[in-house]
Specification:
- The protein is an all-alpha fold and 199 residues long.
- It folds into 2 domains: 53 residues, Orthogonal Bundle (Arc Repressor Mutant, subunit A); 139 residues, Tetracycline Repressor, domain 2.
- The chain contains 9 helices and no strands.
- The chain is elongated and about 60 Å long.
- 26% of the residues are buried.
- The N terminus is likely disordered.
- This is TetR/AcrR family transcriptional regulator.
- Keywords: DNA-binding, Transcription, Transcription regulation.
- It holds the Pfam family TetR_C_13.
């Protein structure tokens, strides 16, 4: 076997492990799934798992890292097609609404992980907070670009809370209605940004 073939086989096994873990962790939770289940469904050996990941925690961090990269990419792609800052924000929020409407939606992978890893010093919890800080910074930056006298920081926090509520509600009630309500809330935030203070 050539070095190139061995390298591609190694990355294929890692991708299979991560893909399997991602599917199961998201659908069923993290603590309820053991490495034996992941090994069996990924059709790899235990040695292969430990060749790529030091243990389950590193696999969980890789799962969240993958989710983080995908969501950042979605946000970038969504903004690329829009001209105004407000429309860029709307486009980002439409990707969130599309996720809520998608088959198999089980809420936010990061909020779900935070529930399972409540210790603020745990690496998984820190990964959740880092992702949430990126999202807050992203929407706050966009809101700052929409003008108006109101605080972009307050509006950003409002939008994050609105998004959190939509992600929780989207797997408990009608996802279409939740997505529509979320997008209406975003419009409300944008209107408040353009209204004069005290007006």
């Amino acid at each position: 076997m050539s070095q190139g073939t061995r390298g591609s086989s190694t990355s294929a096994a890692r991708a299979r492990l991560l893909g399997t873990a991602t599917k199961i962790f998201y659908a069923e939770g993290i603590h309820s799934v053991g490495v034996d289940r992941i090994i069996a469904e990924a059709q790899v050996t235990r040695a292969t798992l430990y060749r790529h990941f030091t243990g389950k925690e590193e696999l969980v961090l890789a799962y969240l890292g993958l989710a983080d990269r995908e969501l950042r990419s979605q946000a970038e792609v969504a903004q690329a097609g829009e001209e105004s800052v407000a429309d860029k924000l709307r486009a980002v929020c439409r990707t969130i609404a599309a996720g809520i409407r998608s088959p198999g939606f089980r809420g936010c992978a990061f909020l779900n992980a935070a529930v399972e890893y409540p210790d603020p010093d745990h690496p998984v919890h820190r990964a959740v907070l880092a992702h949430r800080q990126w999202f807050l910074d992203t929407v706050t930056g966009l809101l700052a670009g929409t003008g108006g006298d109101a605080s972009a920081e307050a509006a950003g926090r409002h939008l994050v809370m609105l998004r959190d509520g939509a992600m929780a509600s989207g797997c408990l009630s009608d996802p279409e209605l939740v997505a529509e309500t979320f997008l209406q809330g975003v419009e409300g935030i944008l209107r408040a940004r353009s209204a004069p203070l005290g007006g």
